[in-house]
Design goal:
Blueprint: E1 2-6, E2 9-14, E3 17-22, H1 34-47, E4 53-58, H2 69-76, H3 86-93, E5 99-103, E6 106-108, H4 110-117, E7 120-123, E8 128-130, H5 144-152, H6 154-163, E9 167-168, H7 169-174, E10 180-181, H8 186-197, H9 215-232, H10 238-251, H11 254-269, H12 272-286, E11 305-308, H13 312-323, E12 328-331, H14 335-354, H15 360-369, E13 370-373, E14 384-387, H16 393-406, E15 412-415, H17 422-426, E16 435-440, E17 449-454, H18 460-472, E18 476-481, H19 488-504, H20 509-519, H21 525-532, H22 534-544, H23 557-563, E19 577-578, E20 584-585, H24 588-601, H25 610-631, H26 637-647, H27 657-664, H28 666-680, H29 688-696
Parallel strand pairs: 3-4, 4-5, 5-7, 6-8, 7-10, 11-12, 11-14, 12-13, 14-15, 15-16, 17-18
Antiparallel strand pairs: 1-2, 2-3, 8-9, 16-17, 19-20
The structure holds (2S,3S)-3-hydroxy-2-methylbutanoyl-COA.
(2S,3S)-3-hydroxy-2-methylbutanoyl-COA binds next to helix 2, strand 6, helix 4 and helix 12.
Length: about 700
């Protein structure tokens, strides 16, 4: 017998056990109507004497994935009311009969807080539970910072709330967050468990205080956690806020602790950091929506992959697909190169095992999926091929002509080029509609970002297939247009160039890099150059110098360093010098050389503030990003942000270059760019879109280019 408590919550019975099912696809978020439906169901359990206990479970593929994040956007943009989940959780906890939660898929944020308020917590073995609120710049706001330490202790609660990564059900059972794992039919197992505990006194989590520790025990824990959070999450407020709220749980009665949690929660929610991180959350999901490629566009089955080139990128890409269970054929020109490639893969896997990311058993299985070869004949049946060979057009064309000859019709031919013209590569085949760019970022087995480069003739099926495949292998794929450097590198080249100009005008390399890292970038622009190899950008500068505007200012310091053989980490010196463990230190020789070269060029030297360094570095990204948006090489400003957040170490709490510019205000950004244009040259000419939006009070976030196809 079934009763609708609200459209989103169903109430059924298994004789004396009630079953309360949340049905709010796709992730059972606690949207309006869900908390109310749960409260009505609990009321019913309380008032119906024939009911002895109840099971709370999620419909569809998951339990509750948290509060409805859209409501936070509405709240902070003044369009929505307050979310109050605490009363619903108290209602569950105060139910006179046992409420048993049965978790499958994910129990995240408010979803895990609902579970904490239940009297017993069961889960399927492959379930995951967590408090990921810090990924949104907030903290648990429905009692999680008060109930969690009561269930699993202060230290573990801090780990879950500051790291924000979900944990597996097995670990949750181990730390006391779950009572039991249910193999097989979860609902049946939960109903049986509920029948066992029916009639027993209910356990209210908020009354459990034995794991809250003493001030003597907790003092050092909180101090250590704060230190670690300051180091690991530089400039961020939410991790420290979560620690403050958990500390309140150890010092205040439950109700007071919840008030303190709510106060801290609001501080975070209304911060620019949280708005930026929530933007990043939705932007990362928006990239999958391609206006001219409907969601139901048929995908081409990809059950086997072949890779040309077993170098750093080829090897990393092989691991990505093997990790997802897709067999990979890995080709290189000679046995020595193939052996080197395999050895690097084995070394990378060994590191992952050492760090506990994979088990040795998992790795052994994956290595079996990677089949080395010296011949193209093994490519005949591959569903997809990714080319990762040397970055020159003649080599790419030769490889694609060969692939066109040996691969089956219908196979997807992809290039991992980071700068070359996809249409030109496709023209060396008879199947341009099956050619696409798949620009992975190094190390490919770690970096989440994948730039999917749409050629003029790349078919919608091929694009839809690659978007879905990217999700399957754990990548965030962003569709971009086929222009020089695509989106990420097209913006990064002027960013690196501006860093050199700052050094030529008197800023020390360390000052440029530390200004950006203090501001939040994962790494400074010059140190990034040393990491990737200064010769890479040097070759690109040389290859494209003929395309630069006549009289355009050209950087010279890095070219000199390269010509001296200072290529960066791989040669032990570049902008910095490196010890055997690749630890960087300032090199007085570079400072002396720069002074000498600047003097020879007669460039006036001056003190440059960190503020100017940051403005020039970030606004040069924004200005180029505006050109890319206007030219249609990116579909949305959020796509550019997603690229920089997942591929270039841009701080999540600043939301990405385009979001950051909107936050600063485009009028202010435009005025600063005009100032730089006037002082530093034509390369600072403001992008027409930036000018227009600044003059009209517009935002990149609202910019729509009309029928966007990202091919321009
Ligand atoms: N609220 C609203 N929409 C959500 C959502 C949520 N919590 N989670 C997902 N969606 C949408 C998403 O935008 C997408 O929409 C669709 O669902 C599928 O998502 C009170 C304050 C659960 C692991 O941080 O991590 O609780 O693009 O593509 O890959 O203390 O979604 O299709 O229109 O990501 O299968 C805490 C967020 C909230 C979890 C599933 N919870 N979600 O991944 O699908 S704060 C979270 C996820 C909170 C409490 C606090 C993932 C997922 P569309 P998807 P997926």
């Amino acid at each position: 017998m079934e009763t609708q408590m609200s459209d989103l919550v169903q109430f059924t019975r298994d004789n004396d056990i009630a079953v309360i099912t949340i049905n709010n696809p796709p992730v059972n978020a606690l949207s309006p109507g869900v908390p109310q439906g749960i409260e009505e169901a609990i009321e019913r359990v309380n008032n119906d004497p024939s009911i002895r206990a109840a099971v709370l479970i999620g419909g569809g593929k998951t339990f509750i994935a948290g509060a409805d994040i859209n409501m936070f956007v509405q709240m902070t943009s003044g369009k929505g009311g307050r979310i109050r989940l605490l009363p619903t959780l108290l209602k569950i906890e105060d139910c006179k009969k046992p409420i048993v939660v049965a978790i499958h898929g994910n129990a995240l944020g408010g979803g895990l807080e609902v579970a904490q308020a239940c009297h017993y917590r069961l889960a399927a073995p492959d379930a995951r539970v967590g408090q990921p609120e810090v990924t949104l710049g907030i903290i648990p706001g429905a009692g999680g910072t008060q109930r969690l330490p009561r269930l699993i202790g202060v230290e573990k609660a801090m780990e879950l709330c500051t790291v924000g990564k979900p944990i597996k059900a097995s670990e949750a059972l181990q730390c006391g967050l779950l009572d039991k794992l249910i193999e097989g039919d979860l609902l049946a197992g939960a109903v049986a468990f509920a029948r066992e505990v029916a009639g027993k006194p209910v356990r209210k989590t908020r009354e459990l205080n034995d794991k809250l520790g003493t001030p003597e025990q907790n003092g050092p824990l909180f101090a250590a956690a704060r230190d670690a959070a300051r180091k690991k999450y530089r400039n961020m407020i939410c991790q420290l806020a979560a620690i403050d709220a958990i500390e309140a749980a150890t010092k205040l009665p439950f109700e007071k602790g919840c008030e303190e949690e709510a106060r801290i929660f609001d501080t975070c929610l209304w911060s620019d950091q949280s708005k930026a991180q929530i933007h990043a959350f939705f932007a990362e999901r928006e990239v999958a929506k391609i206006p001219d490629i409907p969601k139901d566009t048929p995908a081409i089955p990809v059950n086997s992959l072949a890779i040309v080139g077993a170098g750093t990128m080829g090897g990393g890409i092989a691991m990505v697909f093997a990790n997802a269970g897709i067999p990979v054929i890995l080709k290189d020109a000679d046995q020595a190169a193939l052996d080197r490639g395999r050895a690097t893969i084995q070394k990378n896997y060994a590191t992952s095992v050492k760090r506990g990311r994979f088990t040795q058993e998992f790795v052994d299985e994956r290595m079996k999926l990677i089949k080395p070869t010296l011949t193209y004949s093994d490519f005949a049946n591959a569903d997809m091929v990714i080319e990762a060979v040397f970055e020159t057009m003649p080599v790419k064309k030769e490889v694609f002509a060969e692939l066109d000859r040996v691969c089956k019709r219908g196979a997807i031919l992809a290039s991992n080029t980071s700068t070359l013209n996809i249409d030109e590569i496709a023209a060396s085949t008879s199947r341009a509609e099956f050619v696409i760019g798949t620009h992975f970022f190094s190390p490919a087995n770690v970096m989440r970002l994948l730039e999917l480069v749409r050629g003029r003739r790349s078919s919608k099926e091929v694009i839809a297939t690659c978007m879905q495949l990217a999700k399957k292998v754990g990548k965030v794929a962003v569709l971009v247009g086929n222009c020089r450097g695509f989106v990420g590198n097209r913006m990064f080249l002027p960013y690196i160039r501006e860093a050199q100009f700052l050094v030529e005008e008197g800023a020390a390399p360390e000052a440029v890099d530390s200004a950006l890292t203090d501001w939040g970038m994962a790494m400074g622009p010059l140190a990034v150059g040393d990491l990737g190899g200064l010769d890479v950008a040097y070759r690109i500068r040389k290859e494209y110098r003929h395309l630069e505007k006549p009289g355009a200012r050209q950087p010279y310091v890095e070219d000199h360093l390269v010509e001296m053989g200072r290529l960066g980490q791989k040669t032990g010196s570049g902008w910095y010098k490196y010890d055997a463990d690749r630890r960087a230190s300032s090199d007085p020789e570079v400072a002396a050389l720069v002074r000498k070269w600047n003097a020879e060029k007669g460039i006036p030297q001056r003190q440059i503030s960190a503020e100017e360094i940051v403005d020039r570095e970030i606004y040069v990204l924004v200005n180029e990003g505006a050109r890319i948006l206007e030219d249609g090489y990116a579909l949305r400003a959020g796509d550019i942000d997603t690229i920089y957040l997942n591929g270039y170490g841009f701080p999540s709490y600043r939301g990405g270059p385009m979001w950051y510019a909107d936050t600063v205000g485009l009028k202010k950004v435009y005025d600063r760019v005009c100032e730089f244009h006037q002082k530093h040259g034509q390369h600072w000419e403001p992008a027409p879109l930036l000018k227009r939006l600044a003059e009209t009070g517009g935002k990149f976030a609202d910019f729509q280019r009309g029928p966007a196809t990202a091919t321009a």
